[in-house]
Specification:
Layout (H helix, E strand, L loop, with lengths): L2 H29 L5 H27 L4 H8 L4 H6 L7 H30 L2 H44 L1
Bound molecules: magnesium ion and fe (iii) ion.
């Protein structure tokens, strides 16, 4: 394996860890958003996509000779982003969750763009194909969140003001 191939392998491991982390974050966050059913449903839908992404990236790693036990080790790895995301949310957790999800999707977009370029350079057509299939899913999720950040924020603030006035009464 040459230098470029070994870098690609490293980045694939990172991407796999990122997706495993996303699985955890999406499901645990969605479970706490009963008051925001639209956002909750979207996070659950993206959770399904994310499980498949993790599986596909794992397959790429195995095809390149990574043994399964190492792949499992990688699953436990957490990124700084993930740690920030999984922190204790305050009462404004829906806003924090929307911001964190939006940020996370952009990290994923950057990771897959990098992987596509690297796979192309080393001639790994299968990894390139897989990453090109995943990238639009991350872009669609980022776009969906972008369009709803303002709504979610205003919904939250409106509800907060509503509960304040009911306490005063
Ligand atoms: Mg993903
Ligand atoms: Fe994603």
């Amino acid at each position: 394996m040459n230098e470029a191939q070994s870098e690609l392998m490293d980045w694939l491991r990172d991407a796999h860890a990122m997706e495993k982390q996303a699985e955890t974050m999406l499901s645990s966050t969605a479970d706490r958003l009963d008051d925001y059913p639209e956002l909750q449903a979207k996070l659950r839908q993206h959770y399904e996509e994310t499980c498949e992404q993790a599986r596909l990236v794992g397959q790429c790693l195995e095809r390149l000779g990574e043994d399964t036990s190492t792949v499992k080790d990688v699953m436990g790895k957490t990124t700084a982003m993930a740690q920030a995301f999984s922190g204790v949310f305050a009462s404004d957790e829906v806003v924090k969750a929307a911001m964190a999800s939006y940020t996370f999707e952009h990290m994923e977009i950057a990771a897959y763009r990098t992987l596509i370029a690297a796979a192309e350079l080393v001639g790994d057509h299968e990894t390139k194909r897989v990453c090109e299939m995943i990238l639009p899913q991350e872009e669609a999720m980022a776009k969906w969140l972008q369009e709803r950040l303002a709504t979610v924020t205003q919904q939250f603030l409106t509800r907060e003001m509503g509960s304040e006035s009911s306490i005063r009464r």
